[in-house]
Amino acid sequence: MYTQAMDTMGKDEGAAKAVRSAEEMKLQERFDARIDNGDFIEAKDWMPDHYRKTLVRQISQHAHSEIVGMLPEGNWISRAPTLKRKAILLAKVQDEGGHGLYLYSAAETLGTSRDQMIEALHSGRAKYSSIFNYPTLTWADVGVIGWLVDGAAIMNQVPICRCSFGPYARAMIRVCREESFHQRQGYEALLTMMEKGTEAQRVMVQDAVNRWWWPSIMMFGPPDDQSPNSAQSMRWGIKRVSNDELRQKFIDATVEQAKLLGVTLPDPELKWNEERQHYDFGKIDWDEFFNVIAGNGPCNRERLAARVKAWDEGAWVREAAMAYAAKQTEPMKEAA
Ligand code: BYC
């Protein structure tokens, strides 16, 4: 039944909405101006919902990639050829665990809990980098991951140090410094095998390069004209350089490094283009990429199962840490 009171309530609500949307428009204008000005947006600042969601998606996927990325290399810690190589690999894998933690913390500042992010990974709703769904078959794969995978990661991540969201940008500065060490150790391990190794070791390096080249250049994501998130993320300064531009920069730098190393990149169409001042390259198999990110790569199931197992088996550690933290804060509560 319609009443006059309802009419008044409707009017009040309408007025409140109008005030709210005028307020929101002002906030939106201020946010846009800060983005245009190149200012950092901080966690407590007003931001559009879509900006927040995009950041949580990208930062949490980045964190998941670091944590899942520990698995293919961790597989070789117990089989590293020397004590020195083992110590280097241990440090690298631990760094990646650390990167995951900074990134989860940066994403948490946006109001999503770590448990929610982990649940999204374990249920298959959140993605992690396609590259970690390929197997590490030989010791040379560890070197090639350092050279190509960490090399691609640096190319992608250096521009993120200038990302518009402050906590993500700041986390990336340290991540990039550590990634540089990761790239160098991989290249140096390969150089040692190529220059001082046996013929069998050189064959092993070439085989690893052949298997990792195409997945590495897919890491930058789909071509710009098939990348649904790019245009908006570029406008917001979350992404500073497009997927295709980063891929091209990576290829241009890597071809020269491959020459020094003495390996061949498995693309007969790789050729310097004088006019473009870039290397041309062959057709990327995007069906393979989309198949891998849909969960059907060679190791997707194995990787997720390993993460879920580690999470379940670590439950007692989390419980003990929480109980300890609660005990530490008890005297503070009593004093208050
Ligand atoms: N793998 O619109 P697009 C590392 C998804 S870890 C899987 O271009 P966006 C390292 C994309 O998420 C390297 N999925 O997306 C660690 C989107 O799907 P949703 C990780 C991918 O976000 C240990 C859809 O495809 N680095 O370096 O604008 C050891 C459409 O794509 C991939 C980062 O995470 C992929 N490769 O751009 C060693 C860096 N590419 O989410 C090394 C931060 C695309 O809509 N992330 N997709 O369902 C980024 O810069 C961007 O998120 C991307 C993708 C360039 C990856």
TrEMBL record:
The keyword Oxidoreductase applies. InterPro entries: Aromatic_CoA_ox/epox, Ferritin-like, Ferritin-like_SF, PaaA, PaaA_PaaC. Its EC number is 1.14.13.149. GO terms for biological process: phenylacetate catabolic process. Gene3D superfamilies: 1.20.1260.10. Keywords: Oxidoreductase. The lineage of its organism: Bacteria, Pseudomonadati, Pseudomonadota, Betaproteobacteria, Burkholderiales. Pfam families: PaaA_PaaC. This is 1,2-phenylacetyl-CoA epoxidase subunit A. One of its GO terms (molecular function) is phenylacetyl-CoA 1,2-epoxidase activity. One of its GO terms (cellular component) is cytosol.
